[in-house]
Design brief:
It is a single chain. This protein is of the alpha/beta class and 221 residues long. It has two domains: 60 residues, no CATH class; 146 residues, no CATH class. It is 26% helix and 18% strand. Helix 1 runs antiparallel to helix 2.
Length: 221
Amino acid sequence: MDGAAFPAGVGGVARIHARGQGLHQLRLSIALYYLNFWRVSDWNWGTVPFARWGDGSDPASQRPFWGWNEIPVDSASASDPANWDAVMLKLPAMLEGDGSQDRLAMLNWGQGLNLEGTMSMYIDGGHVVPGSDQVGNRPGSSVVVVREMIDSTGNFQREFFCETWTSPNNYFSVLFYYDTGACFLEWGSGSTSAKVARRVLTRKPRKNSTRASAHFSAISV
């Protein structure tokens, strides 16, 4: 593939996306999408969504991008918590600096509340079951955190890690044990009463539309 893949006048993300959808060879489809990302300045006008990326020094300006993370997998299997290794907590790109040192502790109050609310829905739906005794279960309490950093070429890389963090209203905590590598969700002192908590934990999981990434279900802050 070369520059001919981007004829003059191509500026709509949806048009590029439609061209890729018609490919049935998996490797060719992936290669086309990768080329789209690397050549984004050649075809993306920055209109949908509105974006002015500049030189990459402003973190907020780097986030608007209509990208894809689609995986050719059966939706029922991908949405089944029994098939997840963990729930992935995705931090906003470049929270501070180039993003290489980003942590949950850097989330502002509103971002923390958003994560707290989304995780509460996962718990209520039976997709996550807090507690150290649930680490080995599926659905269970295992989580992982992901930060997104910009590199010297202007592209972004993702890094998996974990840290101990408590949600704004102390509904739950992410606990990390360095010696064992355990990273899981635990109830906080501000969580619901034990009676309500037990009712949540015994509910049958519902199917949802959240897409899985490998063996993870992703929650974006």
